[in-house]
TrEMBL record:
It holds the Pfam family SBP_bac_1. PANTHER family: ARABINOSE-BINDING PROTEIN-RELATED, POLYGALACTURONAN_RHAMNOGALACTURONAN-BINDING PROTEIN YTCQ. Keywords: Cell membrane, Lipoprotein, Membrane, Palmitate, Signal. InterPro entries: Bact_solute-bd_prot1, SBP. Gene3D superfamilies: Periplasmic binding protein-like II. This is ABC transporter substrate-binding protein.
């Protein structure tokens, strides 16, 4: 483990927090030490050796066990409104009662998840299970991917564990060949208990706009770049919007994603071209056209002058105070949250989903947000520090059982939902709460994201505008062009990819801001592309192409 971290010192250089590294280190190590893990420095018993100590767990829930486990995972921000720890929520208490397993949850700070994860791994003090992205595909995932994490002695290969101790998940993998292909490495290793999305939950983000403003100004919902420009000008001139279009830009992540960028038949990251080959959008010739557009909108005051400083709280304020009339956001965290907040203060306030923009009227957008059935970031791995892997596996497998699925999706029968004609329906306490929103209430009675299968009957939309937005945002060619998030480069490829993309991402984001705000001449775009190529982007594309080819052959 020490060798792993010495080889990955660049991770610490990426820490961009508002506290000193020493303070962050002390806080994280203190938090991780509560997990009871021993990391990879202590010899682990084999499953066979461990079986004698765990064989009396039983085969039904609640399990016959007195010991507890530890789990490192994020806490939904809506739940933070009520409780500081998942164990204290109605969901956490019900899960402990139903499984018979006491869990000590360790929650990273939402704004520092990546940094705290890196420091936890470096500390060799691991909990029993960790909910995180292990794919190695991005800076916010495990460097080197799952094969490297297994080789480093951080997490366990789960093939035997799932086969012996997770009958519910095993059955789902046997029945769903597509899912089975997604959740293992190229060499066939299972490495997580996965979050499984249902088909109706694959699209949940896109452009949204103030419909009440459009109606007042007698304007249609914009569909093309030209229509968007005219609309944003009207918002600025006739509604007094200081930032007609605004998005969050946190941690170097431009949350506009591929909205507007996709109009130029490219992406803000890696994507699959019409020829089936992997490409990197920010060096495409047409990416310059997108930069030119947003440079113009920024200069004209149509795009938020403070976009580089806009986090979620700032965006909330801008949307709710009329400074902003359009953004790119999620169904619940955007349309639902903001319409809930304004329904008493301004009953006319209305947001609707807008199509991903195109250059020409009637074009199907080249790309947009669309998730995959397997969500790596909300999946859990079992660490090598787990003293009783069988117990952890059985605890995790509960979520894939019929009883567990109801708890994870809907909460507690009689409190958060009732059964009506065989269908779970939220109670008034959840859907018509006078003080809290549906999203806030479901966050403490269920688990919005995590290792379980989302139920197709679950719907958190509280407005018809949300249901309609899903239909609008789904009308793209995203399924064809989005690069899967669960590709698994080899150890060597991952090392190379990590170094390349750290340098590329840092430079790309620096230049992105400079181009938009006018500090870098747009005529220097070719020099910018040349520098990214010098940093090795062509090799990164080759690595992803190889990983994609191997995935397609699984």
């Amino acid at each position: 483990m020490a060798q792993y971290f010495l080889a990955s010192k660049s991770l610490l250089r990426q820490l961009k927090t508002g506290v000193t590294g020493i303070l962050l280190m002390s806080l994280v190590l203190a938090g991780c030490s509560q997990g009871g893990g021993k990391g990879g420095t202590e010899a682990k018993p084999t499953l066979q050796e461990d079986k004698s100590a765990a064989s009396d767990l039983g085969t039904t829930y609640p399990l016959k066990i007195s010991e507890g486990i530890s789990s490192w995972e994020g806490l939904n921000m809506n739940a933070v409104t009520f409780f500081p720890n998942l164990a204290d929520t109605p969901f956490g208490k019900a899960l402990a009662e139903n499984t018979g397993v006491h869990v000590k949850y360790i929650h990273p700070n939402e704004q520092q998840t990546k940094e705290q994860f890196n420091l936890m791994i470096a500390s060799d003090e691991l909990p029993d299970t960790i909910e995180y992205d292990w794919t190695g595909r991005s800076a916010g995932s495990y460097p080197g991917g799952p094969e490297k994490a297994i080789k480093d002695g951080v997490i366990l290969e789960l093939n035997d564990i799932i086969d012996k101790y997770a009958p519910n998940l095993k059955k789902k993998l046997e029945e769903d060949k597509e899912l089975n292909k997604m959740v293992k490495t190229d060499s066939g290793k299972y490495y997580v208990f996965p979050m499984i999305r249902n088909p109706s939950g694959l699209v949940f983000r896109g452009p949204m706009i103030r419909k009440d403003w459009l109606d007042e100004l007698n304007l249609p919902v914009p569909t093309t770049i030209d229509e968007w420009e005219a609309t944003l000008k009207a918002f600025k001139e006739k509604k007094g919007a200081k930032a007609p279009l605004s998005v969050t830009y946190t941690g170097g992540n431009f949350e506009i994603r591929d909205a507007f960028i996709g109009a130029y038949h490219t992406s803000n990251s890696f994507y699959i071209g019409d020829d089936g080959k992997v490409k990197y959008g920010p060096v495409d010739p047409q990416y310059k056209d997108f930069l030119t557009l947003f440079r113009k909108w920024f200069a004209e005051g149509l795009f938020d002058k403070d976009f580089a400083l806009t986090d979620s709280k700032a965006l909330d304020n801008k949307m709710l105070t009329g400074q902003t009339g359009a953004t790119v956001h999620q169904l619940s965290g955007g349309i639902g949250k903001w319409m809930d907040a304004m329904k008493k203060q301004d009953p006319k306030f209305k947001l609707v989903g807008a199509p991903y923009p195109s250059l020409n009227k009637g074009e199907i957008p080249f790309i947009g947000q669309r998730d995959f059935k397997y969500n790596p970031g909300a999946s859990k791995a079992i660490t090598t520090a787990a003293k009783n892997p069988e117990l952890v596996a059985k605890w995790l497998d509960y979520a894939y059982s019929d009883e567990g699925a109801m708890l994870f999706n809907f909460g507690i029968e009689g409190e958060s939902y009732t059964m009506e004609n065989g269908t779970p329906v939220y109670t008034n306490q959840i859907k018509n709460n006078e003080k809290y929103t549906l999203q806030q209430m479901v966050s403490i009675y269920s688990k919005p994201n995590g290792p379980y299968e989302a139920d197709s009957r679950r719907n958190w939309n509280t407005y018809p505008e949300q249901d309609e937005a899903v239909k609008i945002w789904s009308n793209t060619e995203a399924e064809k062009h989005i690069l899967p998030a669960f590709l698994t480069p080899t150890d060597e490829e991952s090392k190379e990819l990590g170094k390349i993309m750290t340098d590329v991402n840092n430079y790309k984001e620096e230049m992105f801001v400079k181009f938009i705000v006018g500090k870098e001449a747009i005529e220097n775009y070719d020099q910018y592309v040349a520098q990214i190529k010098k940093l090795g982007i062509n090799r990164a594309v080759e690595i992803y192409q190889s990983a994609l080819d191997r995935y397609n052959k699984r």
